[in-house]
Amino acid sequence: MLKTAFIRSLLFTLLVIAVVALTACGPEDNADSAVGVNSNKTYHWKMVTTWPPGFPVLQEGAERFAENVKAMSNGRIKIKVYAGGELIPALQTFDAVSQGTVEMGHGSAYYWAGKVPEAQFFSTVPFGMTPRGMNAWLYHGGGLELWREIYEPFHVVPFPLGNTGVQMGGWFNKEINSVDDLQGLKMRIPGLGGKVFAKAGGNPVLLAGSEVYTALERNTIDATEWIGPYHDQRLGLYRAAKHYYYPGWHEPGTVLELTVNKRAWDSLPADLKAIITHAAESENVLMLSEMEQKNLTALKEMRARSDIRIQRFPDDVLSRLAAMTEETLAEEATADPKFKRVYEAYEAFRQKDDAWTAISEKSYLAIEHD
Amino acid sequence: MLKTAFIRSLLFTLLVIAVVALTACGPEDNADSAVGVNSNKTYHWKMVTTWPPGFPVLQEGAERFAENVKAMSNGRIKIKVYAGGELIPALQTFDAVSQGTVEMGHGSAYYWAGKVPEAQFFSTVPFGMTPRGMNAWLYHGGGLELWREIYEPFHVVPFPLGNTGVQMGGWFNKEINSVDDLQGLKMRIPGLGGKVFAKAGGNPVLLAGSEVYTALERNTIDATEWIGPYHDQRLGLYRAAKHYYYPGWHEPGTVLELTVNKRAWDSLPADLKAIITHAAESENVLMLSEMEQKNLTALKEMRARSDIRIQRFPDDVLSRLAAMTEETLAEEATADPKFKRVYEAYEAFRQKDDAWTAISEKSYLAIEHD
């Protein structure tokens, strides 16, 4: 009896251990069923971008975002980042995310202007808001909600992820002293900026980044805009034209976007959604900060060269271009109710932002130091 | 024999189940030993802040940061946030984090000027960089590394977490037409701004936020600075003084800081460290954006009132204060080698940032629109 009792007791003990041990793994299963997704699963996602392979700051920023997401999720979501053309052509990024060919994309909303004209307000518009105003509008002024609504029919969820800051006005092979000097000028300048430039009598040309330097150097074009001191210096544009104009009235702070396929997004557990959301916000400030740091360093190097003339567009040219921008935006809005709706939301915020900027950032920066 | 064999077999089976079941939980233990910390552990941390309970944007931002960290970590790190005075007095935040009384703090580096004078460069200095330049310096210009080095002897790890943006110049009970009008003026203005104000002949007064309104209303002081339109409106300062001056030369974009006790930080697994790091970066841009959005809304409301005179300090007053700031910083640097070292690193970056800002943000904002 003693032996049988011992065996019974041992059996019972082992049974308890087995049951307790098995159920000890239970909380994760409970958590899974609670969120309706498999929180233990490792997600292998693809991101395609609109940037050339290894493109500094922008492609690098998309890759840093992927690394940060991996680190935060302890490897539960691994995003493989492909530059433009590596998996699909750069300008098919939006479609690839929309169709679910890939889960994620990185680019800027004005690239899809042909398909979604009103998307341009979520990247940048001529004489529009700088990064500070754009972030305030997107994160706290209803901008992001509107952006999500605009992309919803395409099954795409957008997030701000990076910003170029105020760009430069571009490289010209002659001085620009009045709007008359823009007459017939062939300039690589895309999007709404190009439309305004055409209204001013210029001849906007569409060229891929890879063709810009050669076209300018061979006088196929008379002028080109690119980004800012750092990227412009790397492209060697100072060797092809001497007049480097500022400010970049056509792109006062281009918002870069993360796009996520809606179905892929919905498949994620809540913690991974939170990780992606805040990693995008984090990379938004990191990328802008890196642009600023690299631009201020490159500008100092450019200032040391005698063969680059860094010049401001004359006030009259800027004022006239600003007036033509208002006309252009009003024309687009008249022709397209969707464009009009986003334009009005953007404008309502921009006007308040302008009034505040006038007595804060603008007024502060205007102080004359010795 | 059959029965004994069955029991033996059953015993063996249960033993195998028990062992397999127990070791099935093993991978997490393996992961634990790999990182040298318990990655399964739930961390219950405390954060103390320098803000009053419920203080909009700032205390709220610290609380949102804690919520985001909880969501990203799926509840593995829970941070309970205490406002100033709830657990310890507001201005003991740094010491509490340093001593490990709490794991985290939120405030701004200039509050510890008495203990670490050079820390002021990591919050804001008069006529210094705006948030854009500060973020570029901290994240990509070596600023954060220097900040970590400065806090290292105190066992505190700092992170930028939030920014007020360019502040307002303050409320005055009379017009300021020249530096002479500052003579003998009693103004609530703390820190380096207060020292510069004293050099200009003013009488800086130290007052806690809770005392500011009453002191101004009862003419115990003649003027006070606070934050910006949104917080100033909430405090009702327009009922106590009519002249509302801009820009906030003394605080052109105050960086808020997350501080983490070094030992607590070292105890975290890598994924939670990544989550805290990027949640702080995320909240950095979110809080600044919320400040902007609330300020531009409040300014519009203030503009609608006839009893508030929103005025710019005269150019001459600003230029003279800027010159006195240079003198003040040079004096502090002469007296304190540590202050000098951080001042020089800050200045080297600021000068390049100024040159870039002049042709980007400043030049762009100066465009005259119709």
TrEMBL record, chains A, B:
Q: Does the keyword Isomerase apply?
A: no
Gene Ontology biological process terms in this record: transmembrane transport
Instruction: Fetch the PANTHER family from UniProt.
Output: EXTRACYTOPLASMIC SOLUTE RECEPTOR PROTEIN (PTHR33376:SF5), PTHR33376
**Top-level taxonomy:** Bacteria, Pseudomonadati, Pseudomonadota, Gammaproteobacteria, Thiotrichales
Give the UniProt keywords, A-Z: Metal-binding, Signal
Q: Which NCBIfam families match?
A: TRAP_S1 (NF037995)
Q: What is a single molecular function from GO for this protein? A: metal ion binding
Annotated substrate binding sites: 167, 188, 225, 251
Q: Which residues form the signal peptide?
A: 1-23
- Residues that hold Na(+) according to the record: 226
Q: Which Gene3D superfamilies match?
A: Bacterial extracellular solute-binding protein, family 7 (3.40.190.170), Periplasmic binding protein-like II (3.40.190.10)
Q: What is this protein called?
A: Bacterial extracellular solute-binding protein, family 7
Q: Which InterPro entries match?
A: DctP_fam, SBP_TakP-like, TRAP_DctP_sf
Q: Name one GO cellular component term.
A: tripartite ATP-independent periplasmic transporter complex
